Every structure is written in C-alpha cells, then in structure tokens.
Batch of 3 targets.
Target 1
Amino acid sequence: MHVQHPVTENQIPRFVNKHVCAVLHDGSHHYGTVTGCERGKLILNGHLLKQQTKAETLKKKAKKRGARISVKQDNTAKTAAIGLSPAQSPAAPLAPYIPPAEYKAIELEKIALLFALFP
C-alpha cells in the first residue's frame, strides 16, 4: 500500500486509474477511482461524468436529426435463462468487484492522506 502525504498535483499521475481512499483533515473518507487532477482538485470517478455527458450529447444529436437511438442490451437475460446472475456469468472478471461511485472533486488542501487500495 502506497501512502501519500502531503498530496500535490505532481504526485497524482501515479494514482490515475487506481482505486484509492482519500482521508480528509476532518476525518471523512472518500473512496473511488482517480481519473485526474484539475485546478487543484483530485477527481474521483470522472469517467462516470464523461459517460453521462457523452450519452446526453448522443441523445441530443439524434433528437435534432429525428433519429432513434438503439440501446445495447446486456447479457442479463441470457445468464438469467441458465440460472446465473450477471456477476456469476462465465465472463465475470476475477478482480475484486468495486461498485460504481459518484463523481467527486476534492480540493488537494483538504486531503490529509491518499492511498491506493489495491496494488
């Protein structure tokens, strides 16, 4: 486990795409995936914001053109038919499951400790 204290913008790139815990000076903990550092803030789960804005722009473009948007279906129905949940499907990853989290931008001055949860 790599612990970083104090946290500066120069040290953030080594944590990009890693699951981390940011402990603030007030004692609160924030968990997520580091996606970058912008304007003196640590960005956690920024990929979610990018996915949401991409989907919204696609919908707006399609609406302007009058086209319909096709949505891909997942394998839930197929795995349910054979008695497996999506998490138990044969294609399930072997890495630990990290549930999706919300987008967070935390000021670097407020972070007391930052450490990676998995190597």
Target 2
Amino acid sequence: MWSAVSDRFGGRRAQLRVARALYARGLAVNDEGRVHTSGVPVSHAGLARTIGVDRRVVDQTCRTILDDTILSAVFTNLRPQPALRDVASHLGLVALRIAPDDAAKRGLLSRISTAIAEFDVGIHQAIAEDPSFNEEPSLLLVLDKELPDGLVKRLRRIEGVRSITIV
C-alpha cells in the first residue's frame, strides 16, 4: 500500500517525509490544502519544525496531494486512532505487543484472537501495524483483564509469533 503512495511523490524526498508524517499521525489535508486532525487545524510551521523540513515543503506536499486523485483520496480521509497502550494500566487493562516472524503472512491475528478467547479474555483494542509502512511491524493488543496463567505460553506456541512483550 505505501509503495503506491510513495511512488506518486516521484523522488521528492522531503515531500515524502511530510506524507509519512501525515500518515503516521493520522493527519488529513482539507480541500484548501490545510493540515488538520478531525477538523482541528494543525500549523504547517509547527509540523515542519517537528519533522525537520521547511514550512514551504509542507505547503507544497499538500498541493501535490490535492492535485493527485489517489493521494487526495487517501490523505483527505485520514483520521487519528488513539492507542490505549500507554493508558491501559490506568484503565485496568493489559497491553501486549506481539511481533510476527513475517507480517505479510495471513491468519496470525485470527490465531492469536482465538487463543485469547479460549482463556476467556476480551480484546478491548487491536492495532496491526502496516508492514509496508513499518520496518518492524507488530500487533498491539489491549486486553480487558490480567493475563491468566498459561496465556502467554499459549500465544508463544502460535506459528508466526516471534516475540511477546507486555507493554
């Protein structure tokens, strides 16, 4: 998926850097070429400072996005996704990060969720990182209660699971 996006920037590395930052943060571009998050404006200068480019690169990236049908369809519809991993313990939840052997292999999420259900544990949130965007993609799970004895051992036995970390 990401290669289809990056190809459309054709060697404009600074613009691609801006596009990656927008995508990673769920920041969208509106019809006027302004960056926002769920309708709340984001300063182009502030975004530029954060990612280490000139503000004009952010401006031009937004124009590039709006001038391209595919890029526009992607970047005008992005939304932020809150990840509960950092607040899970405050909410009585447990967060796990599961690294796969091969993130492109299908069925791992299904096998993991089945194993968790066998232990009568609910999944409050699941976020699977895009293997075409992340060098080391993982699956973040937020579970609704403490880990029962044997669950981590059972998860480690699933084909395709490389490692499990309690976050």
Target 3
Amino acid sequence: MGKIVNISEAVSIALHGMVIIAQSSEQQVNVNVIAERAGSSKFHVAKVMQKLAKDGFLGSHRGPSGGFFLIKSPLEIKLIDIYEAIEGKLIVSQCPINRPICPFDTCIFGNVTTKMVKQFKEFIEKKTLADYIGAKYRKGNKRILNSIMIHDNRL
C-alpha cells in the first residue's frame, strides 16, 4: 500500500525517541529502551540520538549504564526543531515533486499536497515535547516537573 505522507525512519526515531526521553522518570534513557519502545534498530537509534546530542538537544553518557537525557526543558524543544535537525529545513513548495516547470497549466494535485505540508509544518511548529508529557508522566517525575515549572509558572 502506498503512502501519501512519507516521514523518514530517522525522523520517526528522533521524534519518538525524544518523547520517550522526556517522559522518562530516569535520569537518562538507554538506547536499548528507546529502540524497543520505538520499534527500531538500536544501531539506527544510536546514530539518530547522537545526531540530536551533537545538535544540542540531548546530553549523553557512554558505557553499559549510559544513556541520553534532555539538556533543555521539554517546553523549549519544538517538534519542528527535531524534524529539521534530521531532515533539514522543511520547505513548503508549490510542486510536490519539486519540478521547476509544470508540464500542465494547473497542478494535477490541485495544490492539496502543498496544503498538507503547510498544515503539517504549522502543527509541528506549535508542538513541544511538553505537549506529550501527560499527567501520568508528570506525576512523580520531579525532574520533568522542576524543568517545566522553571519555564512555566502556570503549573
């Protein structure tokens, strides 16, 4: 079955991995845990998480008891930033196949793909990791609570 929207495995790992880390009550989350929960290869997870660490989203400790941890508040990390760290700038273009010249007078897709990309981009620009830390994760997770309370006086 074909897909209309295609999100790369690396982006999926990055987004899911960051949420898993943000939700964790542990000080750091091991690659094996992320790989198991995300349903991905631990080697691919390690590569993606290392990229996010290099780009300043995560800190890490090496070794068998090592893992990854957020170095910013979940409120400060937008999904668009994670996406663009992996894929590069998300650009809304007029042509879904990036052709400079269309062979037709009007797009055969009727600009629906442009609208979809625009709506997706607007959605991930508004969402932060904090949006995915439900009450069950906040309860009893002092690391997350302290991080959020510093940046948001509403809690």
